[in-house]
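Input.
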Amino acid sequence: MNKPQMDLTGSKILAVDDVPANLDVLSQSLEADGYNVLVATSGETALDLVRRIEPDLILLDVMMPGIDGFETCRRLKAQENTQDIPVIFLTARSELEGVLEGFLAGGIDYISKPFQKEEVLIRIRTHLERTRLAKDLANLNAHLEQKVEERTLQLQQKVRELEGKDRIAQHLLTFHTLQETLALVLEVIADVLDVPKAVVYLMDEGVFKPTAAMGIATPKVLVSEDALSQITVLDAQKDIFEEMITRQTVMHKEVEASSFVLIPILRGSDLLGVIEVDQSGENGGVSEDGILALSSFALQAAVAISDAQIQQNASQWKNQMDDVMNLEELSDDLDALEQFTPKRDE
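Output.
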């Protein structure tokens, strides 16, 4: 079964010979086979044409006035943008002893004069196919290398994400204030996703209030508690926050030349707060994988918020019990006092 031939129609062939009759023969044969033929009668002209046209293959006569074919080939191979163009030397039978010099100069083959049409076409096709296959292979290798590099970066990113989650999980095993935990969540977001600016808003009496922030004045630097009161939701953002409350899903928006993403902090169906991440930086914003990572960090933040609420409720319950115990002790004291208080005569 014959292998289908590669379509080489339109390939550019530069024929270089100082004898016009030879160029006519070559041009007629090659054009009849579907090639696009260009001609030059000297090495200097050929070099100028190659710089402007970049042919797919060069047929190069050896003996020419001015610079000969060998020197022309050496100059082509010395230039990065022309060194990969295949060169086939055209040589008279009496010049066959110079074939070795032609190979040393960078040629890949030779055709002896007088030309045999079938031989010329076969040799040209062979080297054009070989060159195209080599380019296709190089492109494939480059594509595979790019894919491997992209996959490696993805795996490295995943490792950083898992390490960040582990940092937060280990942190939650011991008692910390909510403020300390949210600060750690922001630090992890900055480290893992290279986010320069983020704010955590928690729901307080139906209103989102900033509880922790990073990068407001200086990228990736945590904001002090005293400065949190200066952070406000822009009027243009309020509708987006309201939409997120309703939809409880990630929101990508641009407001007043600022791009940001809102990540809901959910505990079951309860919306506890939101993480706002700025996407206006030079790093191009948060990727889709980054959004998934942020959602995971938001879930851990929800656990921290719930734990803090439980601890706060437990503390309040304890305070109430202490108050009750104090009232009982006061009642006992009053009863004891009544026993020693003289009764009035009726």
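Residues 12-138 form a domain with the Rossmann fold fold (CATH 3.40.50.2300).
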